[in-house]
Amino acid sequence: MTVRRIILECYRERRDVPFAWRTADCLQWCGMVTERLTGRDPGAELRQRYASEIDAKRIMVEHGWRDMGDAAASIVPEIPLAFAHSGDWAQCVDDAGRDGLGIVCDAQVAVCTEMGLGLLPLAFARRAFRP
User: What is the mean pLDDT of residues 52-70?
Assistant: First the structure.
């Protein structure tokens, strides 16, 4: 099965699942796809340390992380954004300034929203990571 097909299969499974800390958040989404692609979930250990927004913010402060890009860089290698391809992680920031991680799929990034998964153009990405 191709990388694109695996991402689309995961997307179909999760597209209507509303956001929930630890179980349906951006780190869980990236971990799910990466596990299907590689057999390992690099964010699993970190996800076990939070269950709410307050927990997540506390962890970020403890580590000096400014955003989810810093969190991702602590567990997977950062790559130049220009080299991002399907299956890589991308940090995106929406118009309201909220940041999160998503999965690159061609010229788009599949990201978590309050209502489920959505798609943003890769141009919205600020940083990229190779799990």
Answer: 96
